[in-house]
Specification:
The chain is mainly alpha-helical and 79 residues long. It has a domain at 19-44. Helix content is 58%, strand content 0%. The chain has helices spanning 7-15, 20-43, 64-76. The mean pLDDT is 87.
């Protein structure tokens, strides 16, 4: 397996010496490639609604009103 060259070294040795038009073309290629990846990532975003019901087992056997009442009691005693 060939060890990858550090980016700084790659830039200094392979990219920086090239003519400006080639470097601009490379920059455009990288930007286009990254934009395509971002588009794919945006398509795979999830909805918050997918979390519905997760962790429901934590609240099993707990009365919601009692829980809220206890929280309110704690708030009243805070400085």
């Amino acid at each position: 397996m060939v060890k990858a060259m550090p980016l700084e070294e790659l830039y200094e040795q392979q990219i920086k010496p090239r003519p400006k038009d080639e470097r601009l073309k490379l920059l455009a290629m990288i930007a286009q490639d990254l934009a395509a990846e971002v588009k794919v990532e945006e398509q795979t975003k999830h909805s918050l609604l997918e979390l519905e019901g997760m962790g429901a087992e934590i609240w099993q056997g707990i009365d919601a009103q009692e829980y809220v009442n206890e929280l309110r009691k704690e708030w009243e005693h805070r400085p």
